[in-house]
């Protein structure tokens, strides 16, 4: 297990409707996190734009190599000498046979190089009790593989938003060595109010890993409202840092990485899996 401490910075944002405006919105927040000593900085899901209508979104959709936010944050990581997880950018999937976008996390090192990518596995198709309807599968092509990446601080597992509801993914990341798991999100207000903290704490307890959850928050230009309340949960399930609002800002937390080993030694459930027959 990794020892030592690392300071992380979670950016809570309110993504505008265009990548140009999104980069201008994010850059001062990333700089603020760096000024506060964060060595790993994480942004939320849909960092490059929040657009509910596909027609409007596709006007700004680009390949990853040309996305304004992905490239701008890469340059910023190199300038500041920090590692950065771009929680996700919505970009062209690169699949000629499928015109849907990819909802993609990018892990960027302190030289501005993209060292890992993850496409959101579970897309958000739901009819909420308040009448809101979401069909992410209509516009986003789901990924097909889990990702754990090495950083100088610890092994980092990648997830995005709705993935939070699938504990088997988190377990697979932990069993592959993840000591920190990122959950960049743009949670709806009804589901955020009801489930956000409970699910984050449950995933931390189940995996014995730090959960890093930077979120979108507030009323967006496209009319969508997101929950905010960015949070860091330790491997014992304790919330060690949180924002209690939807406002754009920065959340700083110092992680004692030895806590991962202590939690997994105290409750070694990751090594206790057993095969079983499914219910009839």
From TrEMBL:
Top-level taxon? Bacteria
Report whether Cell membrane shows up as a keyword of the record.
no
User: PROSITE patterns per the record?
Assistant: CN_HYDROLASE, UPF0012
Domain CN hydrolase as annotated: residue spans: 6-257
Kindly state which keywords UniProt assigns to this record, in alphabetical order: Hydrolase
Q: Does the keyword Metal-binding apply?
A: no
Q: InterPro entries this protein is in?
A: C-N_Hydrolase (IPR003010), C-N_Hydrolase_sf (IPR036526), Nit1/2_C-N_Hydrolase (IPR045254), UPF0012_CS (IPR001110)
Q: Give the matching CDD domains.
A: nit
**SUPFAM superfamilies under this entry?**
Carbon-nitrogen hydrolase
What GO molecular function annotation could you give as one example from this UniProt entry?
hydrolase activity
What PANTHER family does the database record attribute to this sequence?
DEAMINATED GLUTATHIONE AMIDASE (PTHR23088:SF27), NITRILASE-RELATED (PTHR23088)
Homology family: Belongs to the carbon-nitrogen hydrolase superfamily. NIT1/NIT2 family.
Q: What is this protein called?
A: Carbon-nitrogen hydrolase family protein
Q: State the organism named in the record.
A: Brevundimonas balnearis
């Amino acid at each position: 297990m990794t020892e030592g401490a690392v300071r992380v910075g979670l950016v809570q944002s309110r993504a505008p409707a265009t990548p140009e405006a999104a980069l201008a919105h994010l850059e001062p927040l990333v700089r603020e996190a760096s000024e506060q000593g964060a060595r790993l900085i994480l942004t939320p899901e849909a960092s490059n734009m929040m657009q509910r209508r596909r027609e409007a979104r596709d006007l700004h959709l680009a390949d990853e190599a040309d996305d304004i936010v992905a490239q701008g944050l890469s340059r910023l990581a190199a300038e500041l000498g920090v590692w950065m997880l771009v929680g996700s950018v919505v970009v062209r999937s690169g699949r000629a046979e499928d015109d849907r976008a990819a909802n993609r996390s990018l892990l960027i090192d302190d030289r501005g190089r993209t060292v890992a990518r993850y496409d959101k596995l579970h897309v958000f198709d739901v009819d909420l009790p308040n009448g809101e309807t979401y069909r992410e599968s209509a516009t986003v092509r789901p990924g097909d593989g889990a990702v754990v990446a090495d950083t100088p601080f610890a092994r980092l597992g990648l997830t995005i938003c709705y993935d939070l509801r699938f504990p088997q993914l988190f377990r697979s990341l932990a069993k592959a060595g993840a000591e920190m798991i990122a959950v960049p999100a743009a949670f709806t207000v009804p589901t955020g109010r009801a489930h956000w903290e409970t699910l984050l704490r449950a995933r931390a307890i189940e995996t014995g890993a730090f959960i890093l959850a930077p979120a979108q928050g507030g009323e967006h230009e496209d009319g969508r409202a997101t929950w905010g309340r960015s949070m860091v949960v330790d491997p014992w399930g304790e919330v060690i840092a949180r924002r209690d609002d939807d406002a754009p800002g920065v959340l700083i937390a110092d992680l004692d990485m030895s806590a991962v080993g202590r939690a997994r030694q105290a409750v070694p459930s990751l090594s206790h899996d057993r095969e079983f027959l499914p219910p009839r």
